Amino acid sequence: MKFLGPLLVLIALGIASLFAGVSDLSLVTVLSGDERALLILMESRVPRTLALVLAGAGMAVSGTIMQMLARNRFVEPSTAGTVESAGLGILVALLFAPDLPVFGKMLVATGFALLGTSLFLLILRQVPLRTPLMVPLIGIMLGGVISAMTTFIAYRADMLQSLGAVMTGDFSSVLRGRYELLWMSLGLTLAALWTADRFTVMGLGQEFATNLGLAYGRILTLGLVIVSVVTACVVVTVGMVPFVGLMVPNIVSIAVGDNLRRSLPLVACLGAGLVLACDIVGRIVIPPFEIPVGAILGVVGSVFFLFLILRKRSRVA
């Protein structure tokens, strides 16, 4: 029953997304058989709505997995250098293989994201963590270094505009035939749901999980692959979608706890709903222009991040 309410809200947001925008599209024009309305619906609005759902669900689940891997509630792909590493991979692909198909660019971005996430976890093992806030601080610093490297390379290669277009979370250019890569993230999200119990045990720590018979190394590798591939798919397709993996898992954890078998479906549903809601707001605030969903999520996520920090400090006090 706890899942039914968010699911109904998600369906309502999906329907609203189909008819929100500059073009004169309504249920009446669609049902009347207007060819232009049907073309806009099938070529633009339906693909865009599906892309929003897939990206939001995938990034929310990836954030949950990263929090289990790092055992820290302040971690997600955009605060651990994963997104920045994927962006560097896309830039490298554009520089050395500009004719590479989208799937090939996704593979390159996945490799870089995997390396960046592994480096982040390796640094965490080497640094004494006296406070939980050290973990996102390290991730943000690592992401800043990688982002600076990426910007410098793009500047030297006169590709700053291309890099900006890639890294801005914007769904306005999503059309049929340009979002299908995101279905891979759905498959990996389902894989995370299938292995949810193992990620729950993994969040208790390596020694405890190993004593319970968990193949810690295999589950760690699976988690890294899921996070890296989902992040690469989203960045290659629509750009950076920040803070979804930070906000949604924390909200769900407060509401239903940390049993991933029970909470991951809710995480995926709320993640999709959050991205849908932010995109709808971006479309209707200043028509006929749009605010990229990445910008709205950046503002909302920053405020929520500060809320988590202040909440944590108040509980410690």
Any overview of this molecule?
The protein has 317 residues and is mostly helical. The chain has one domain: ABC transporter involved in vitamin B12 uptake, BtuC. Helices cover 75% and strands 0% of the residues. It has 14 helices and no strands. The protein has helices spanning 4-19, 27-31, 35-70, 82-96, 102-126, 134-156, 160-167, 183-194, 196-202, 206-211, 216-238, 244-256, 260-284, 293-316. α1 (4-19) runs parallel beside α13 (260-284), α3 packs parallel to α8 and α5 (102-126) packs across α11 (216-238). The longest helix has 36 residues, at 35-70. The protein is globular.
Helix/strand layout:
Elements: H1 4-19, H2 27-31, H3 35-70, H4 82-96, H5 102-126, H6 134-156, H7 160-167, H8 183-194, H9 196-202, H10 206-211, H11 216-238, H12 244-256, H13 260-284, H14 293-316
Task: Quickly list its features.
317 residues, mainly alpha, ABC transporter involved in vitamin B12 uptake, BtuC, 14 helices, 75% helix
Outline, from the CA principal axes? globular
CATH topology: ABC transporter involved in vitamin B12 uptake, BtuC
Task: Report the uncertain regions.
Answer: none
Q: Share of helix among residues?
A: over 70%
User: In the residues, how many domains can be counted?
Assistant: 1
Give the CATH H-level superfamily: ABC transporter involved in vitamin B12 uptake, BtuC
Q: What's the SSE pattern?
A: HHHHHHHHHHHHHH
Report the end-to-end length measured between terminal Cα atoms: 36 Å
**Helical run tally:** 14
**Strand fraction band?**
under 5%
Most strands sheet: none
The CATH architecture category equals Orthogonal Bundle
Average predicted confidence as pLDDT? 84
- The total of beta strands comes to 0
Task: State Rg.
Answer: 20 Å
